[in-house]
Design a protein that fits this description.
The complex is a heterodimer of chains A (about 230) and B (about 280).
Chain A lengths: L1 E12 L2 E12 L3 E5 L6 H9 L6 E6 L5 E4 L13 H7 L14 H13 L15 H13 L5 E5 L7 H14 L4 E5 L3 H4 L5 E5 L3 E5 L2 H5 L8
Parallel strand pairs in A: 3-7, 3-8, 5-6, 6-7
Antiparallel strand pairs in A: 1-2, 1-4, 8-9
Helix pairs in contact in A: 2-4, 4-5
Chain B lengths: L1 H6 L1 H26 L3 H21 L3 H22 L4 H22 L8 H5 L7 H20 L1 H9 L1 H6 L4 H40 L5 H26 L3 H32 L1
The chains are: A alpha/beta (about 230), B mainly alpha (about 280).
Amino acid sequence: MPILKVNHLQVNYGQTMALTDVNLEVEACDFIGIIGPNGGGKTSLIKAILGIIKPVRGTIELDPGETLGYVPQLTTFDRNFPITVLEVILLGHLPKRITLGHRFTRHEKEHAAFVMERLGIGDLKKRQIGELSGGQMQRVLVARALMTHPTILVLDEPTAGVDEASKKEIYQLLAELNKNMTILMITHDQLDTAPFISRFIYVNKTICRSELPIWEGLIGKERKVQ
Amino acid sequence: MIEALFKYTFLQNAFLTAVFASIVCGIVGTIIVEKKLVSFSGGIAHVSFGGIGLGYFLKFEPIFGGIAFAILAALGVAQIRKRSNTNEDTLISMLWAAGMALGILFIALTPGYPPDMTSYLFGDILTVNALYLRVMIGLSAAVLLIVTLLYSYWKMYLFDEEYAGIIGIRTSTLEFILYLMIAVSIVILIKVVGIILSIAMLTAPPAIVKLFTNRLSRVMIGAGILGIMFNLAGLTISYQMNIPSGATIILLAISAYLLAFLGKKAMITLLNHKVTK
């Protein structure tokens, strides 16, 4: 049973078409790698799923009870911003309805501490975000996304600008989370992610094909998207 | 100077103006620096000159014209930016020049002797009157309240606006409030350091504090305290030496930034040297 369905999605930026007739079904605990050329519409697809951009055509259906968490690229925020790791993670739990005089509760702070321990960044809580390595920063962004207990985690190139050793750690962390969480991840790293991925989708204006990781694909298990 | 402060109302007004303007500058200046809205704020400051000119021309309090023009320009740029492909820098530079041009035009059209505009352009804290002070206290209180009550949201909006939008926070509301606050803060600063120098007062104190801390709240509070020090020191020096107060305040702030920057560099070099030894 799919928990997320994308039906005949079309996304435009002004007169330029970014995606057309995209169909995708995601099942619980899938780990989907979104691959494709630059400018092919990978980011547009996840932005439409997250509701950041409105499609001109098509629908996105999310099962009731399913919630999305998002881990952006490391380039979307200012690394010199005066903010600590703990503050960044707590902000992931900020109420969406603007509340005057909002303060984080003790329970929220305890939950943030729990998430940080789980991700192995408990000792970084007082550090300024810009002092961290790429791998540590990525864990902080995953922790922020986990603050709202999402059932589907969407990541945009989580290993861009991250060293080789940290890359491996991030993939292992995601594989661990994937035990009870669905993951959609944009990646250019087909080879290293293959051991963890259940399915790759190739996006170039539309979903051109959906395939199993390389070695399974090689023995003829390639399949079409539903 | 202290004796004179108790004696003269104009000095008391100047003192209070310096304190309130510094608090607002510390808070809003930090936001401007972090959101990289420095040239935007410069543009808004210059647009307000058009409103001041209109005030003289239509014979109402010029500062209200300045507030109206600054607010309209701030909100106008936000709207045009959303609806057109014009680069924000281009828009701001056009508004910048248009504001100044309108100001000059209105002053030229005003019957009788042209008013002295140097206090608006370069500031003259010693000429602050009771009405200006009351307006400024009200606006400062509003800015302080808004930033304090929405502090967590500002932090999120400034750090990662896109993520704030994704988790459902209405960033357009925060943007609207921010532009209003910038417009108001600039008008508050006009009498203190003037339109031309106001940007330095908004940016120098937060830039100095940011060299030494990694907490947003500390940057805001520290910048406010530094602003008060620069304003009061500048006021005292200008009173004693009979030199323009706005320029004195700005030169003090910029010198302090240079000293702090070089001091920090020297400190890091010294520490690295010790470690390698």
